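Quick review question:
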């Protein structure tokens, strides 16, 4: 079973970002459950949205037994987030395993339009999803639920962590990328790349088909990674 953990609006303009908190949280959780990955999701970028920097949220994906205690996972993450609460932030936390299509659609809507806390809370309650604001205005509940829906769709965002991704640097072979958990390497038009060298310093695989996919383009005698939302 995959458990989706969404978090949003955990930072202020001077603090570490939500992605950094997600990686630290995942490091703690991975002592109990194998980590499937951490994904960054871009939400609606509009001046009417009170985002901190880029209005992105994060989703942590865990492999768990079918009988995993979601409430216990929620409580553990909640305690970690509260211990690293940043003044002026408005964090939200969401944990779910069985993600309804309505939640996926909520995530997609949050990428292109304004949605409200009331929308998020009502939807979470209707589908028995754990969702809570952890301080400030609690506006992060919107992005937290959206992150869960978008991650569960399998077709949104980019991985900021998967296996040994952040240990890679410089030119690495396609075979090396595949060995650390990237499912495949492809061009923007879908052509699979089976050999060659890829610059990995800024590699952030896209989540497509529910797996990490490195999307690249040929430039300066090597494959250069593209960042897709």
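Suggested answer, residue by residue:
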């Amino acid at each position: 079973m995959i458990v989706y953990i969404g978090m949003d609006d955990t930072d202020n303009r001077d603090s570490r970002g939500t992605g950094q908190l997600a990686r630290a949280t995942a490091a703690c959780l991975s002592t109990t459950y194998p980590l499937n990955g951490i994904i960054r999701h871009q939400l609606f970028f509009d001046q009417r949205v009170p985002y901190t920097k880029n209005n992105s949220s994060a989703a942590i994906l865990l492999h768990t037994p079918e009988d995993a205690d979601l409430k216990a996972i929620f409580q553990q993450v909640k305690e970690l987030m509260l211990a690293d609460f940043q003044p002026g932030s408005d964090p939200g936390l969401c944990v779910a395993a069985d993600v309804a299509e309505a939640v996926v659609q909520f995530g997609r809507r949050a990428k292109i339009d304004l949605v409200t806390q009331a929308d998020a809370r009502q939807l979470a309650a209707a589908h028995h999803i754990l969702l809570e604001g952890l301080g400030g205005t609690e506006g992060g509940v919107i992005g937290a639920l959206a992150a869960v829906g978008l991650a569960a769709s399998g077709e949104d965002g980019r991985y900021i962590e998967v296996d040994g991704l952040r240990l890679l640097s410089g030119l690495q072979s396609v075979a090396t990328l595949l060995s650390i958990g990237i499912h495949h390497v492809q061009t923007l038009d879908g052509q699979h790349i089976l050999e060659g060298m890829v610059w990995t310093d800024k590699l952030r695989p896209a989540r497509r088909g529910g797996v990490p996919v490195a999307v690249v383009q040929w430039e300066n005698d090597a494959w250069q990674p593209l960042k897709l939302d």
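Why it works: The chain has two domains: 2-159, 164-225. The chain has a mean pLDDT of 93.
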